[in-house]
Amino acid sequence: MLEGRGTIQRYFDRLKTLSPCVPHEIQQVQVQGPESSSDGSLSGVMQKWREYQRQCLKYLYEAPPIAAEGKFCNRTFDNYACWPDGLPGTYVNVSCPSYLPWANTVLHGQVYRFCTSEGTWLLKENSTLPWRNLSECEASDQGAETPGIK
């Protein structure tokens, strides 16, 4: 069993080198022991993430254009969440991604972005990366942890 744990840990370590393709939140998952379930294992999380990505890309392709004329923020998948088009000057929120190992503890949580009046996603300060607030989707340090996941 411990050999399996080492294999999974090496897989986690390998995953960390794949950034930025894999969300930072998945990269932070660490194995606690050999009792990891298929649901909470890295391969299980990655499978859920790929399905989430597939569904998002399908939505991005098939959803009708925003009804607004002029400027707006484009729909996108940022490797963490699936974003619809945004109206200028508004916050856009979506549910916490279902692939998160702790998704059942943040069922009502939201992740946010801001669409500027210019129709572009607000960027992090001194960065080319879009700003987002995912605090409602973070794993709680105080509740019960997902088995096998830290």
List its salient traits:
single chain; 150 residues; alpha+beta; Hormone receptor fold; two-stranded antiparallel sheet; 4 strands; globular; disordered N terminus; disordered C terminus
3D architecture notes:
The chain has 150 residues and is an alpha+beta fold. The chain has one domain (2-137): GPCR, family 2, extracellular hormone receptor domain (Hormone receptor fold). It has three helices and four strands. It has helices at 2-16, 24-27, 42-62; strands at 76-77, 82-83, 90-95, 110-115. Strands 1-2 form a two-stranded antiparallel sheet. It has a two-stranded antiparallel sheet with strand order 3-4. β1 and β2 (82-83) form a beta hairpin. The two termini are 18 Å apart. It comes from Anas platyrhynchos (Mallard). GO terms for molecular function: glucagon receptor activity; glucagon-like peptide 1 receptor activity; peptide hormone binding. InterPro entries: GPCR_2, GPCR_2_extracell_dom_sf, GPCR_2_extracellular_dom, GPCR_2_GLP1/glucagon_rcpt, GPCR_2_secretin-like_CS. This is Glucagon like peptide 1 receptor. Keywords: Disulfide bond, Signal.
